[in-house]
TrEMBL record:
Name the UniProt record assigns to this protein: Hydroxylamine reductase
EC number: 1.7.99.1
CDD domains linked to this entry: HCP
Organism classification: Bacteria, Pseudomonadati, Thermodesulfobacteriota, Desulfovibrionia, Desulfovibrionales
GO aspect biological process, one term: response to hydrogen peroxide
Family matches, as Pfam families: Prismane
Keyword annotations: 4Fe-4S, Cytoplasm, Iron, Iron-sulfur, Metal-binding, Oxidoreductase
A single GO cellular-component term on record: cytoplasm
Cofactor(s) this protein cannot do without: [4Fe-4S] cluster; hybrid [4Fe-2O-2S] cluster
Species this chain originates from: Pseudodesulfovibrio senegalensis
SUPFAM superfamilies: Prismane protein-like
Family from the record: Belongs to the HCP family.
Length: 545
């Protein structure tokens, strides 16, 4: 196997024997085969659009399948087989409709792929189309091509979350399929690939905007909300991942059962949504970021529901208590499927009722969430006045993923050292490095504002754009600095979006992507002033002068 799509890749260069994330070689091969099949499928889908052949949900399917290959989503080899077969079924039906219109171009090999009949033969088939066997010889083009593929995995994740809540945009699907089809091309120069990477960033803005509309349209705009960090006596279910609808369904199905619902990791911001927080048994938040789940899940005295990434190999002690749903999967963990009219979480509920629950109340303080674009822009006048009066000197967006590798305490130290006349906006699971710090307020506005999940990066973009408008300047002229941490491919998509918006001077850590070549990095440094993090002191000094 060879995989270098995430930040924790082995030796900073690539996982070759087994993934640091726990991905086995067979899963790696099946993911590569699925991506290859989707590249071919996209070539056919692009042709179908051009020829007005009716779409039967190809875009949504492509996103769903692509999302399943994102880091820490699905580790269950068997789940990839029906997806591969569905790619081929859908592809052949589009081809037949095209042929009926007299359109039968020369399809790329990927668009003619026939998956082998059994697992033993599928794995070598996947290995043959892995990154190492990419016929592309130009290292920089290969680097940008992989950047586009990884960015598209992130776009697909956002599009899938939005689709689950009924929000779709044909222009977004068209962009995803067009870009994925282009990744099969061998006739594009470096400039064209740079453009594709920026196009991927723009597609991601569309996806994030759609997801924002889906989340806020369904559950209301998040409002500032205090979330208890301890526990309350009684039976309990812990929900992790990112999916709001799964949480909503679970909250409804546990109403009146006496079970309290807790969030873990990226589900924390869900407490700010009016239509979710209205449930009295939606108690609070338990634990921190995804990489601490082995310890935190093992100690949780109830059932656990994993709705999306990031799942880690469950310890034996809680394998029987953890349930997966949606695209997330782990071999041996019980999986809850969609049954046509929703999901039936009774197995999770039964498990929670059979488990001890919390014997007593545990008070561990609280944190504030709910500072999405609507809440922050609601106090925009106060913020703008505070900036003009010199009460707020600078804004820092300290955002992105958390992870297991060392070096991430940079972000804790950075936030601790941000001067008191500066605000910190944060989003995604990297916030758990400092989310419970009491940073006080400036003129009644908390200095630490939790904008939401990584899925809410659009909120940060909207806040920055609105501030730039208010000050009649560009985003790069604002007293705003972006200090980002990345781990998986949603972060790649967000970075490409920021570059597409022309945002400069981003600091990125804890290490740079292994799939970026020195030449591509030089280009990013020269054109966008992108830089790796150094030390909190040096970076703060460089930013604040
Ligand atoms: Fe974190 Fe994982 Fe949300 Fe990522 S839980 S690391 S960017 O997959 O999704 O922030
Ligand atoms: Fe390695 Fe990351 Fe790929 Fe997992 S997703 S195999 S850790 S590079």
């Amino acid at each position: 196997m060879f995989c270098y799509q995430c930040e924790q890749t082995a030796k900073g260069s690539g996982c070759t024997r087994i993934g640091v994330c726990g991905k086995q070689p067979d899963v790696a091969a099946l993911q590569d085969l699925l991506v290859y099949a989707l590249q071919g499928f996209s070539q056919v889908a692009v042709e179908a659009r051009k020829n007005h052949v009716a779409s039967g949900g190809e875009g949504a399917f492509t996103c769903r399948a692509l999302f399943s290959t994102l880091t820490n989503v699905n580790f269950d080899a068997a789940r990839f087989v029906p997806m591969l077969n569905e790619v081929v079924e859908r592809r052949e039906s589009l081809k037949a409709a095209l042929a009926a219109k007299g359109v039968s171009p020369a399809w790329h090999e990927a668009a003619r792929l026939v998956p082998a009949a059994d697992m033993a033969a599928l794995v070598p088939q996947g290995e043959a189309v892995g990154i190492e066997n990419d016929p592309e010889t130009d290292a920089d083009i290969k680097s940008l091509k992989q950047t586009v593929i990884y960015g598209l995995k992130g776009v697909a994740a956002y599009a899938d979350h939005a689709e689950i809540l009924g929000q779709e945009n044909p222009a977004l699907y068209e962009a995803v399929e067009g870009l994925l089809a282009d990744t099969l091309r061998t006739d594009m120069d470096l400039g064209a690939w740079v453009q594709r990477a920026l196009d991927c960033g723009n597609a991601n803005i569309m996806a994030m905007e759609l997801l924002d509309a889906a989340n806020t349209g369904t559950y209301g705009h998040p409002v500032p909300t205090e979330v208890p960090l301890g526990a309350t006596q009684g039976k309990a279910i812990l929900v992790s991942g990112h999916d709001l609808k799964d949480l909503d369904m679970l909250l409804q199905q546990t109403e009146g059962t006496g079970i309290n619902i807790y969030t873990h990791g990226e589900m924390l911001p869900c407490h700010g949504y009016p239509e979710l927080k209205k449930h009295e048994h939606f108690h609070g938040h338990y634990g921190t970021a995804w990489q601490n789940q082995l310890k935190e899940f093992a100690a949780f005295p109830g059932a656990i529901l994993m709705t999306t990434n990031c799942i880690q190999k469950p310890a034996e002690s809680y394998l029987g208590n953890i349930f997966t749903t949606g695209l997330v999967g782990w071999p041996g963990a019980a999986h809850i499927t969609e049954n046509g009219s929703g999901k039936d979480f009774s197995a999770v509920i039964e498990k929670a009722l059979a488990m001890p629950g919390f014997a007593q109340d545990e008070d561990k303080g609280s944190v504030m969430v709910g500072f999405g674009h609507n809440a922050v822009l609601g106090v925009a006048d106060t913020v703008i006045d505070a900036v003009k009066a010199g009460d707020i000197r600078h804004f820092f967006l300290v955002a992105g993923c958390d992870g297991a590798r060392p070096g991430r305490n940079y972000y804790t130290e950075f936030v601790e050292k941000v001067p008191e006349d500066c605000m910190v906006l944060t989003l995604a699971c990297g916030k758990f490095r400092f989310f419970d710090k009491k940073l006080g307020d400036i003129g009644g506005i908390p200095r630490l504002l939790d904008v939401g999940q990584c899925n809410d990066a659009y909120s940060a973009v909207k806040i920055a754009t609105a501030l730039a408008e208010a000050f009649d300047c560009g985003i790069n002229d604002l007293p705003l600095s972006l200090v980002l941490s990345w781990y998986e491919q949603k972060a790649v998509a967000i970075l490409l979006s920021l570059l597409a918006l022309g945002v400069k001077d981003i600091r990125l850590g804890p290490s740079l992507p292994a799939f970026i070549t020195p030449n591509v990095l030089n280009f990013l440094v020269e054109k966008y002033d992108l830089k790796p993090i150094s030390t909190p002191d040096e970076d703060l000094k460089a930013i604040l002068g």
